[in-house]
Specification:
mainly beta; TIM Barrel; Jelly Rolls; Immunoglobulin-like; 5 domains; 13-stranded antiparallel sheet; eight-stranded parallel sheet; 60 strands; 36% strand; globular
Length: 1016
């Protein structure tokens, strides 16, 4: 994860063009242990890392309640044999900051302590944990070793048993096992953990996330039988030409035991092999689309273990990343571990919910940003099918602020800890078929320690290696970028990226696949341009795809004194330095509600593309974008609607499409040939019609990750093929009545300046031209290559403080004419606005029609946020307001985020239209609205004569902009309607490109035309 500062980081090369050195100068010290004051310098007393597997050997979970005390410094004065009588209790797994001890802190780049490696401050909160385990003589009689396994402790732990120090552990997000054999005793055993918030390891853990401490993953006591299995390495390759898989399982045994050969058994394949023996048999391959797994048992005289194997082969062929002989396009997300209540202490249920949501939204890949996840998450990726980039727990981003001087990645004292972290990840995770790429870490600059990490991974495994700063590919296999624009990405796809001076490195890079390890920053309302990226991804085989930043908002749950739930972010806990809401940047809300960005992502990623065929009015082109699956199980349904009312529906046949194949099919005649009675039977309501639309949906039977009828594709075509404007309603006579207060035009009342005051019996408390929106998070940041942020440009232009000068108010035979100039204080440019109000008779009652012409005046150097007419209608009491409309829905849509929207008639409420982003901002726009009805007061209908963008909210733009959390929004008193000619796009300026030119709302003359019909 990066921000505007990080986008300017030099390429990960030194003057000589290699990643193996930096400008950092370090003392000739070989070990952190030689540094005075270094706290928990390296792992001590930890056994060699191994794979995770299920075993029938004894395992005792130590999750649950531990005695706990928290101290302000590393020297707690507590002995390891102190059982903690009278201490508080804390759950494990958990972070102590979420249980009343200290506060979380959020930074993106900066370390929250002085940078003086490997030393840390004296102010170092330390938790003392105690737990008693009772063992019997029978437990200890069995031969073998007893290990204490720590899955994750932030940031380090000193481990003691029965008062004797056993070892020390750094590396928060990788497991460690310590040998307790010989110190355990029959009866009560006191396990003591001393956990420091800061350690030497903290210098390698400067990821963009909350700083929180404690034992946040599981703890267990394991018996490792003599002669049993110490480690297992599964090699399960697949030959796509023959359909055969080759299995070879290497087994490392525990010392002791009766000896004998370990056997490898796969009952489903009829295999019974000696360890290390290879066999080739017909198999079904593993892929993210078809995650076929086989149970493998390894049997010794003293232990049986089980792993799940998936046969698959990874290769890079002519610069194309392939799995099982097919090009793979990664439609991925970056996922931190996070729970809004417990931080990184994530339950299995939450992990599974994440995987299921990814699958349901057509995501096929996940990057474990920026550390190895809980091992159960990888089991779920194996089972449900996700391609994984497994990333090591290394990030030193704060050194960017120092020009990378002193960066630990090139400090020889940090070499052993960094290689150790890589080893613990690779060894733990090596048997997961879902892992297709190893990543050395994130935003850690450059240095020789990274090369040592890559060397270790290659010595143990043949999967490709990734590290984004190594853009010359000195030590990695994949060309990676963060937040490259659509144009830059397309240039790489075409092979037109800038040429490196080192032609050998240039050729190496051009022969590699390209991935966007982060793109499309999903902060607040956004991201934009997902469909633009997807178009480029599909077009060029060299492009592997990318990973959206990121999966969910990291808001920490809180409540007001009145019990209203909201979410905190950086600065809300009194941090000295922080990065505010930059941690609220996900496709899911903190409570895991899908954001409109995730709905858009799902639509862009949909496996079946259904589009109108250019050669026929009634034909569709259906394209299968699955890489493994055909469409034999897909059901295609159609539904014909007239002005949003369904008039006919059914199913139809589409030839079975092989992976990546397409076809053109004619819709059934009953879907496209409607008689007059069917059209007349439809309720035209207030539409500009009749409009006849056919919606085609593709669904599949139940999947392990989705219920029956899960949608895998959607398309629409309009049969009448005409974008009509409604015929003018019949004008009423006379057009204008002069009143004591001003004027009346049909049901509308105006003051002497021509300002709308009422519609029928409904007062209007604010009305008029508007061109500002409450800035989105993306609006507040400067996009790559731009001179200033949208928000700044709009403020400079005065759009948040518009003032109106009325130049003419005239009652005419046709209605009320108002000419005005609108501009911001302190600016010269503005808008010439002409309002033409006329009385209209409609089938739904008498209305007032507005035809508004807007001509920008002066020099406008920037796009506009929006342009239209706003009204504030009082609500009798706070509460929701029913809404019905005909236009794009059901969710919000903007210029560069509309793939999920389709034309229809939608029934919802004002609250249903809104998106409650953690940080209030512009939200809820519905595009191409033909008509809308609102259940406010006696009722109000809006009939659009030129399609409009509609936003209906319970708060004004000013109120949204002033609030930093949802709980700060005032009690609603008005319904705010924004009827716009258009709005600007969203972009990803918080971390990457702003709004693409084709999606900007650029100043120009526009006409807005609609009729308001109050209901009595």
């Amino acid at each position: 994860m990066t921000d505007q500062l990080a986008t300017t980081v030099p390429s990960a090369t030194d003057a000589a063009g290699t990643i193996a050195a930096t400008s950092a100068s370090t003392a000739p010290v070989d070990s952190l242990a030689d540094v005075p004051g270094a706290l928990v310098p390296e792992c001590v007393g930890v056994v060699a890392p191994r794979a995770t597997f299920l075993s029938d050997a004894t395992s005792v979970s130590l999750d649950g309640t531990w005695r706990f005390a928290c101290f302000p410094a590393a020297d707690t004065g507590i002995a390891f044999d102190d059982a903690g009588e009278g201490w508080d209790e804390i759950p494990v797994p958990a972070h102590w900051q979420r249980h009343g001890y200290g506060e979380p802190a959020y930074t993106n780049i900066h370390y929250p302590f002085p940078m003086d490696p490997p030393r840390v401050p004296d102010e170092n909160p330390t938790g003392e944990y105690r737990r008693v385990v009772t063992l019997t003589e029978a437990d200890l009689a069995a031969d073998g070793a007893w290990l204490l396994r720590l899955e994750g402790v932030d940031s380090c732990a000193i481990v003691a048993l029965n008062g004797t120090e056993i070892g020390q552990v750094t590396g928060s997000r990788v497991p460690a096992e310590l040998d307790l054999t010989g110190v355990l005793r029959v009866g009560h055993n006191l396990i003591a953990l001393r956990v420091h918030q800061w350690s030497t390891g903290s210098y390698l853990e400067d990821q963009d996330q909350w700083w929180m401490s404690g034992v946040f993953r599981s703890v267990s006591l394991l018996h490792r039988p003599a002669g049993g299995v110490r480690d297992v390495r599964v090699r399960a390759d697949y030959d796509h030409l023959t359909g055969e898989g080759t299995l070879c399982v290497d087994v490392d045994r525990n010392p002791g035991g009766a000896g004998g050969t370990a056997r490898v058994r796969v009952a489903e394949l009829g295999l019974d092999l000696a360890a290390g023996e290879a066999a080739t048999v017909p198999v079904e391959p593993w892929s993210a689309e078809v995650p076929r797994l086989y149970d493998v048992e390894v049997v010794t005289d003293t232990e049986t273990v089980r792993v799940r194997a998936g046969f698959r082969t990874i290769a890079i062929v002519d610069g194309v990343f392939m799995v099982n002989g097919r090009r793979v396009l990664l439609r991925g997300v970056n996922r931190h571990e996070f729970d809004p209540r417990e931080g990184r202490a994530v339950s299995h249920e939450v992990m599974e919910a994440d995987v299921l949501a990814m699958k349901r939204h057509h995501c096929n890949a996940v990057r474990t940003s920026h550390y190895p996840p809980h091992p159960a998450f990888l089991d779920l990726c194996d089972e449900y099918g996700l391609y994984v980039m497994d990333e090591c727990d290394v990030e030193t981003h704060g050194y960017e602020t120092e020009g990378w001087r002193g960066n630990p990645t090139d400090d020889p004292r940090f070499r052993a800890p960094m290689v150790d972290r890589m080893a613990r990840m690779v060894e733990r995770d090596k048997n997961h078929p879902s892992i297709i790429v190893w990543s050395l870490g994130n935003e850690a600059g450059r240095g020789r320690n990274l090369a040592a990490m890559a060397d270790y991974a290659r010595s143990r495994d043949d999967r490709p290696i990734h590290y984004e700063p190594d853009q010359r590919l000195d030590i990695v296999d994949i060309y990676s970028r963060m937040y490259a624009s659509v144009d830059e990405t397309e240039a790489v796809g075409r092979g037109a990226e800038p040429i490196l001076e080192d032609l050998v490195a240039d050729a190496r890079r051009r022969g590699s696949p390209f991935v966007l390890c982060e793109y499309a920053h999903a902060m607040g309302n956004g991201p934009g341009a997902l469909a633009d990226y997807e178009r480029v991804f599909e077009l060029y085989p060299r492009i592997m795809g990318g990973y959206v930043w990121e999966w969910f908002d990291h808001g920490l749950e809180a409540a007001t004194p009145e019990g209203e739930v909201y979410y905190k972010y950086g600065g809300d806990f009194g941090e000295e330095i922080h990065d505010e809401s930059f941690v609220i940047d996900g496709l899911l809300m903190p409570d895991r509600t899908p954001s409109p960005g995730l709905i858009e992502f799902a639509a862009v990623n949909a496996p079946l593309r259904i589009e109108r065929d250019a050669q026929s009015r009634t034909a569709l082109r259906v394209r299968n974008r699955w890489e493994v699956l055909d469409t034999s199980e897909v059901t295609f349904t159609w539904r014909t609607e007239v002005d949003g009312d369904p008039v006919a529906q059914g199913t139809f046949d589409v030839p079975v499409l092989a992976p990546c194949a397409s076809t053109v099919v004619e819709l059934p005649i009953e879907a496209t040939e409607l008689d007059a009675a069917q059209v007349d039977a439809a309720d035209a309501r207030l539409a500009c019609g009749p409009e006849v639309w056919v919606t085609v949906e593709a669904t599949v039977p139940p999947r392990p990750w989705a219920p029956n009828g899960h949608q895998v594709g959607l398309g629409q075509l309009r049969l009448d093929d005409v974008v009509t404007e409604s015929a003018p309603a019949a004008p009423r006579d006379p057009g204008v009545t002069v009143t004591e207060r001003g004027y009346a035009v049909g049901p509308a009342r105006f003051d002497a300046r021509g300002t709308l005051l009422a519609l029928g019996a409904m007062d209007v408390e604010h009305a008029g031209f508007d061109a500002w929106r409450a800035p989105t998070e993306n609006d507040r940041y400067i996009g790559a290559g731009e001179a200033m942020s949208n928000g700044n440009a709009w403020t400079i232009a005065g759009l948040d403080r518009l003032r109106s000068r009325v130049d003419e108010v005239q009652a005419t035979a046709g209605g009320l004419l108002v000419r005005s100039r609108v501009a911001g204080t302190g600016t010269r440019h503005g808008f010439d606005v002409t309002y033409r109000w006329s009385a209209q008779s409609t089938p739904h009652g008498d209305g007032a029609r507005l035809d508004m012409d807007v001509v920008p005046d002066g020099v406008w150097p920037h796009a506009l946020p929006r342009l239209g007419y706003s009204l504030a209608l009082p609500m009798a009491a706070p509460g929701d307001v029913p809404v019905e409309y005909f236009g794009l829905g059901p969710g919000e849509a903007y210029n560069d985020s509309r793939a999920a929207a389709r034309v229809g008639r939608w029934t919802t409420t004002v609250n249903g239209l809104a998106t409650n982003y953690v940080v209030p901002q512009e939200n809820g726009c519905r595009r191409e609205v033909r008509w809308a009805k609102f259940g406010v007061a006696g009722g109000l209908a809006i009939r659009a004569h030129v399609r409009l963008d509609l936003t209906a909210r319970a708060w004004s733009n000013t109120e949204l902009n002033a609030a930093k959390h949802t709980c700060e929004l005032p009690t609603p008193t008005h319904l705010w309607l924004h009827l716009d000619a258009g709005q600007d796009g969203l972009g990803s300026a918080t971390c990457g490109p702003g709004v693409l030119v084709q999606h900007r709302y650029l100043p120009g003359r526009v006409t807005l035309s609609w009729t308001a019909v109050p209901q009595t």
